[in-house]
Design goal:
Elements lengths: L3 H20 L6 H32 L1 H4 L5 H9 L3 H14 L2 E2 L5 E2 L4 H8 L5 H11 L2 H4 L3 H14 L5 H15 L15 E7 L6 E7 L2 H14 L11 H19 L12 E6 H5 L5 E3 L3 E3 L1 H8 L4 E6 L17 H11 L14 E5 L14 E5 H9 L3 E5 L2 E5 L21
Parallel strand pairs: 5-8
Antiparallel strand pairs: 1-2, 3-4, 5-6, 6-7, 9-10, 11-12
Helix pairs in contact: 2-5, 4-5, 5-7, 7-10, 9-10, 11-12
Length: 427
């Protein structure tokens, strides 16, 4: 612990928790166990208030920015092992229920003063605060007069200890819509066109989902014409559904473009398909392999890919290390970049997972410090974590052929190395 006061508080807290554990131990009656639940929830809410207050003070002092982080949520995630949504929930609470500092240094009340009171009293949890902030930050709420907006906050805060967060969201949304008597200002302009495509990799299993919407008729027609041309039944006995034929047609067209089209570089390398094959799988006639985006590929698909000259096979050792194809240049050669991609499959910072096309290759020992452009001196990082490595006390190093990241002491006093999991290196 950093101070005597924190050490003393920690000692007392441990004693209190041990007492609760004993109260809930063997021989505890029904009423005692129920009391343990309510007491534990009350204590957890008080601890949340301590955390939120500390986050607000650290934000106000600029501590996270000074240590290389653009966002408090990113720092909290790395320091405490939280998922980003958990960290953002506390950051939102800090912004909404803690007092602020004005440009002139004066102390200002919280943005949600009444919610701050019920949160401090333990009558509202973090999720309740998040819901109130979401409801009062909606477009309908922003159209309310200031006094009406403040009255809505009073009503929402009063319901926090009566409703669950989900119920509060539904009730609060209806309340704001009822108070917004004028509604959305009429707009005679045509609705804006939406053209978007989402590529979502599945977590923990192969493949992914493609979702799109194209209001631009010309753009949609171009896509539909190509897919339709390739999605026709192969024979009269082709029993594939239209959806299956269209999915395979889209993949076939994209594969053709990768092989023959004039495709721009992505993240420093020309788009292509990397097929990562473990040595034991290769010796067993290629029963499995891993793609950059799609995850594990089935044997049938692997055998088909292996016939394609545009596919780059990369053989990995037992720990997932590819062969070093080092070359003494500052610019990362295409072959060496393939090896870095093969090793990590994208950003190698723990917990990130951004694909290779979003990532860059980082010299661990800088080129200006005579660091070689070789696999043992390179790590793949997305732009966010590349910047973090250059502007914070994080350290990356290679151990046993694989990168590991050492956090600053303020994140982990023991500075224990962290590494991203490597599914293709698991036996």
């Amino acid at each position: 612990m950093s101070t005597d006061r924190v050490a003393a508080a920690h000692r007392l807290l441990v004693e209190a928790v041990d007492a609760l554990v004993a109260a809930a131990g063997p021989g505890a009656g029904d009423d005692e166990l129920l009391s343990v639940l309510t007491v534990s929830e009350g204590v957890a809410r008080r601890l949340d208030r301590v955390v939120v207050g500390a986050v607000a003070d650290l934000e106000r002092r600029g501590v996270f920015a000074e240590r290389g982080y653009k966002s408090a949520a990113g720092a909290l995630g790395d320091m405490l092992g939280w998922e980003r949504f958990e960290a953002r929930r506390r950051v939102v609470a800090a912004e909404q229920v803690c007092r602020r500092t004005g440009l002139d240094g004066s102390r200002l009340p919280a943005r949600l003063p009444v919610t701050a009171e019920v949160f401090a009293a333990g009558r509202a949890g973090l999720r309740h605060v998040e819901v109130v902030a979401r409801v009062l930050g909606s477009p309908a709420a922003e159209r309310l007069a200031p006094e009406v907006w403040a009255g809505a906050e009073v009503q929402l805060a009063a319901k926090a200890d009566e409703y669950t967060p989900s119920e509060l969201l539904v009730w609060g949304t209806a309340l704001v819509e009822a108070l917004d008597q004028d509604g959305v200002e009429p707009d005679d302009r045509p609705p804006p066109q939406v053209n978007e495509l989402h590529l979502i990799r599945h977590r923990g299993r192969p493949g992914g989902t493609v979702k799109g919407r194209f209001d631009d008729a010309a753009m949609f027609d171009a896509i539909a014409a190509v897919v339709d041309a390739k999605a026709k039944p192969l024979t009269g006995e082709d029993e594939r559904s239209a959806a299956v034929r269209q999915a395979e047609a889209l993949a076939e067209v994209c594969g053709f473009v990768l092989d023959h089209g004039d495709v721009p570089h992505a993240g420093g390398g020309r788009p292509h398909l990397n097929v990562l094959v473990r040595l034991e799988d290769l010796e067993n006639r290629c029963r499995a392999a891993v793609l950059d985006f799609g995850g594990t590929v089935a044997p049938e698909s692997l055998r088909m890919l292996a016939c394609d000259a545009a596919v780059v096979p990369v053989v990995l050792g037992g720990r997932g290390q590819p062969l070093d194809v080092g070359r003494l240049t500052r610019t990362i050669p295409d072959g060496l970049r393939r090896a870095v991609v093969a090793r990590g499959g994208g950003c190698e910072f723990p917990g990130c997972g951004r694909p290779p096309s979003w990532s860059e290759v980082h010299h661990i020992v800088g080129w200006q410090e005579c660091g070689p452009t070789a696999l043992h001196n390179l790590a793949m990082l997305c732009r966010l974590h590349h910047r973090l490595l250059h502007h914070s006390e994080w350290i990356v190093r290679i151990r046993d052929g694989l990168p590991e990241f050492v956090p600053p002491a303020w994140i982990d006093p023991q500075r224990r190395p962290r590494a991203a999991p490597r599914p293709h290196a698991v036996a």
